Amino acid sequence: MNLVWDNLPFLLKGAYYTLLVTVISMFFGLIIGLVVAIARLKGNRLIRGIARVYVSIIRGTPLLVQIFIVYYGLVDYGITLGPLTAAYVALSINVGAYLSETFRGAIQSIPKGQTEAAYATGMTGWMTMRRIILPQAARVAIAPMGNTFIGMLKETALVSAITVTELLRSAQLLIAQYYVYMPFFLGIAAMYWIMSTVFSAILNAVEKQLSKVY
């Protein structure tokens, strides 16, 4: 494992890009997921249909294919994205579809009586959603959101296929230099595990805090 320690700074730089892609993609995925969930619950027939088709297509096709479509396919239409930007776009669109289902289920789990009570006090639909429904839905959704986040952290390895120098790509470059496989694969596996464990602990703490509030 000496090779891993000797090249740890290079691998840590790859881990940084892994975290960067994960956090940024998850941030925009949260926005997309919330918008799509509300569209499916509150939108008219056309909007609900579009939202359902989006979720169906994204969930029914491989993430790697989606990455290739964004990075390579859009070039056919004059849209050229850098590897990192393409990774953000593809992963955000992908995780947004999964999070929309999480949010939709969480929102639907809130008793309808609370909505009716909010309307009775004079709240508008938006005020009810923002002040009553979404805070409670966030508590319900935090656990599955955490699982999605951990999954996204690991799935960032796929963007190595479009030359983003994240953790897996960094290991591949070192393997090409030293012609040794196992130490680097074991090393990055340990790094993925450490990052996943840390984020799980953070999300558990957030979930406990929300449980105290609501």
Automatic annotation (TrEMBL):
Residue intervals of the ABC transmembrane type-1 domain: 15-203
Principal cellular location given in the protein's record: membrane
Transmembrane segments: 15-41, 53-74, 80-99, 178-203
Keywords: Amino-acid transport, Cell membrane, Membrane, Transmembrane, Transmembrane helix, Transport
Organism superkingdom: Bacteria
Subcellular location: Cell membrane
Membrane topology, record value: Multi-pass membrane protein
Family label: Belongs to the binding-protein-dependent transport system permease family.
Protein known as: Amino acid ABC transporter permease
Lineage per the UniProt record: Bacteria, Bacillati, Bacillota, Bacilli, Bacillales
